[in-house]
Every structure is written in structure tokens, then in C-alpha cells.
Design a protein that fits this description.
388 residues; alpha/beta; seven-stranded parallel β-sheet; six-stranded parallel β-sheet; 14 helices; 13 strands; binds ligand GMT
Length: 388
């Protein structure tokens, strides 16, 4: 990665959820990429982010501690985060704070900004919306005033798709512009690898390999994945790899038993090296109820795996119907199975879909997307400096 000469290195604070969820992954990968482009990056969260697997001279992690007083039924995380943000901005002399997820990160950042202003310190805030903060949490009307206020008080707001941008305007009283900066992919990591032994172990007779990765929440409709797989298996021999874990896992295991599909399905649990699993895949299933972008599908496509998905949310901005895979209505397992069989039943066709998936993933190359965040930071910093 080459940093354009005219770009000034910045001190950037990144606030995110440290879990395997998409928003935490994007935030962490962004921070790592920014550090490689010469910026100093400070992660601020209650735990070291899962994908923060290396440190360099310009990556720092600041933990947020929440004291548990018997008086409180709920630990005051937002207050602890706000205080930590004030502390880190002040002592690390940050240029910009980039918060991922509206609640409680944007609201804590706005509060920190106001506190710092009373001490003569100006800090611009960029808020990135990832999806569930708007489409699920956001629909809870009790959060509406805080989310709307935090977005309007941010110095820049980005959403990961046009669909999410529209959802935000539909659900909140947001009066400011929202920039669309999609998810991105690092091809150094997400590329098809030679994993012949693994493939042989999973499909000893050359069965086609279908993959689904998610956090097994209801919104992912993993049940549909299993039902689609059942229908595929009526027509051809295949294997299903389920990667990830979450609240629906037990129900899904039961469904596999009920449908007598256990011999074809492997539950791999949470995997750090998901790209190795994707490397042996022939098809990725994403039947989600809602999906602001669909990072897991992009990761699959980068590893040459075509995608049969629902047409929810921002997925149509990634998956190209008939080219990189197919899209069907949410819950239409018959159509999903039909499309999957169409792709898998002809090796030449499958090869073409795999090629197209990889080509499409290039539109979201990390080198194309990260500079868009840098531009946003520079813009909000310049505006803030001009206003004082
Ligand atoms: O998909 C999840 O359950 C995790 C979720 C999150 O909030 O971390 O992911 C969201 O953000 C990702 C990164 O921007 C997007 O690619 C996912 O589509 C989005 N998930 C949903 O909208 C359900």
C-alpha cells in the first residue's frame, strides 16, 4: 500500500465492538490498514478486538474499564466509554475519532466532544453505521432521540450501503448528509488457497461444498440454509459447512437431525482462518432477513465462491444476480435451492460464476475503500480547524 505523498499522517481513534461481528471486523481491519498507511491508530473498546492480531509501533489499544457497583443494576458502560474517550483524545492528542455503531459509541463520542470543547479541545467525530444499529436496534423507538441527535452532532456520517443510508433517513430524524463507504476486502488474506487435503477430508467423493458463515442470530435465517441444503441433496450429493456460532446453533442442530441431514453437515464453530474454509467452497448461502452490506458474502466472493442470497438490504449492491450468484426473496428456499443447483450442476458454469465473484470482489478492494475514509477524516478535520 502506498500513501500519497500529499497525505498528512493523522492520529485516529477507533471505537468499536471487539467481537467477531461485522462492524468490529471492519473497524479493526480499517485501523490495521490505516496504520500500514502511516497513521497512528488508537483502538478504544472494552476488550482487545478479535481481529487485532498484531501490533506495530503505531497501533495502540486503550481498554475501557467499567466498575461494577452494587448500587447499579446495569454497569454504566457509556459513561465509562465517554470518560475514556476524553482521556485518550486529550493525552494522545488525537486528530479525529471514528466510531463504529451508533449506540452507544456515537452518543458517547458526542458527549466526549462536548466535554472536550469546554476545555478548548476540538475533536471531530466520524460515525459509521453498520446495519443492526439502524435496522434492528434503531427500530426500537426508545433509542430514536439519542441516535438522531448523535448522528446530527457527528462531523461526518458514513453508511456501508445506499440501502442502509435510506433506512437511516426512514427511521431517524437525520438532517445531515450520509456518505456511502462500503465494506472492503483485503486480498492478501482473502484469496483462494490450495487446500486440497482439507477438501479431500470434507468431500472425499468430490461432492460440491456449500458454506455458510454467520453469528447464528435469527436475522441470518440459518434454518433456511439447512432447508436449501436439504433440497440440493435431493438432487445431488453435497456437503454443508456451517462456520460460526450463536444463539440459534442448538435449534439448527436439531433441525439437521429432524431433516436427517447430519451426515452431510459439519458445524465448524468460530474460525479465525475463515479464508481457509472458503478456499474449498463451491457456493456460499446468505439467506438473511436483513443485511446492510453482507461482509461474509464479500469474503466468500474474494475466495472465488459464488453467492446465493436473499435480496434484502444492501445485498443487491454486492451480489450481481445471474453473474456472481443469484438473489431470491427472503424465505424462498425453493428458489434458492433451484438457483444453487443451476450453478452447481454444470462445472463450466460454476467456473464462470467463481471467476465473476472474484472479479466483483475487486470493486471493494481495500486500497479503493480505505482512502475514502482518509478523505472523510481530512475533510472533517479541515472543517473543524476552519471553524475555530
Ligand atoms: O451481521 C451481523 O450480525 C453483525 C453486524 C454488526 O453489526 O456488526 O454486521 C453488520 O455490519 C457489517 C459490516 O458493515 C455488514 O457487512 C453486515 O451486513 C451487517 N449486518 C446486518 O446488517 C445484519
Amino acid at each position: 500500500m502506498v500513501l500519497p505523498i500529499e497525505r498528512i499522517n493523522m492520529k485516529i481513534g477507533i471505537v468499536c465492538y471487539p467481537t467477531y461481528g461485522g462492524s468490529g471486523v471492519v473497524a479493526t481491519e480499517l485501523g490495521k490498514a490505516l496504520s500500514m498507511r502511516g497513521h497512528q491508530v488508537h483502538f478504544i473498546s472494552y476488550k482487545q478486538p478479535a481481529r487485532l492480531d498484531f501490533f506495530t509501533g503505531n497501533i495502540f489499544f486503550h481498554e475501557v474499564y467499567v466498575s461494577h457497583y452494587p448500587l447499579f443494576d446495569f454497569p454504566p458502560y457509556e459513561t465509562a466509554l465517554t470518560s475514556r474517550l476524553v482521556d485518550v483524545v486529550k493525552f494522545e492528542k488525537l486528530d479525529v475519532l471514528h466510531v463504529h455503531y451508533a449506540i452507544p459509541h456515537a452518543s458517547a463520542a458526542v458527549m466526549a466532544k462536548h466535554i472536550l470543547a469546554t476545555e478548548g479541545i476540538q475533536i471531530p467525530i466520524v460515525t459509521t453505521l453498520h446495519g443492526t444499529d439502524i435496522t434492528l436496534v434503531g427500530k426500537d423507538k426508545s433509542f430514536e432521540p439519542v441516535v438522531s441527535y448523535s448522528l446530527n452532532q457527528s462531523n461526518g456520517v458514513t453508511a456501508v450501503s445506499a440501502s442502509l443510508k435510506q433506512d437511516t433517513y426512514d427511521h431517524f430524524k437525520v438532517t445531515r448528509d450520509i456518505a456511502i463507504i462500503p465494506n472492503f476486502i483485503d486480498f492478501d488474506r482473502f484469496s483462494k488457497q490450495a487446500k486440497e487435503h482439507f477438501k479431500m477430508a470434507v468431500s472425499p467423493n468430490g461432492e460440491k461444498i456449500i458454506i455458510h458463515t454467520s453469528n447464528f442470530r435469527k436475522v441470518k435465517r440459518v434454518e433456511d440454509v439447512v432447508r436449501v441444503f436439504g433440497k440440493i441433496r435431493e438432487q445431488m450429493d453435497a456437503k454443508l459447512l456451517l462456520v460460526g456460532d450463536g444463539p440459534e446453533r442448538q435449534n439448527i442442530e436439531q433441525l439437521c437431525r429432524d431433516l436427517k441431514l447430519c451426515d452431510g453437515i459439519s458445524f465448524l464453530g468460530k474460525q479465525d482462518a475463515v479464508e481457509e474454509v472458503l478456499s474449498i467452497g463451491d457456493l456460499f448461502l446468505m439467506p438473511s432477513e436483513t443485511e446492510s452490506f453482507g461482509l461474509a458474502a464479500l469474503e466468500a466472493m474474494a475466495c472465488e465462491v459464488p453467492v446465493v442470497s436473499s435480496n434484502a438490504g444492501g445485498i443487491p449492491e454486492l451480489n450481481i444476480d445471474g453473474k456472481t450468484g443469484f438473489m431470491c426473496n427472503v424465505g424462498d428456499v425453493d428458489a434458492m435451492a433451484e438457483k444453487a443447483l443451476y450453478i452447481l450442476s454444470d462445472d463450466q458454469r460454476l467456473k464462470m460464476f467463481k471467476h465473476n465473484a472474484r472479479q466483483r470482489a475487486h470493486d471493494f478492494h481495500i486500497d479503493k475503500i480505505v482512502p475514502q475514509y482518509e478523505n472523510m477524516y481530512e475533510e472533517v478535520i479541515a472543517k473543524m480547524l476552519a471553524s475555530v
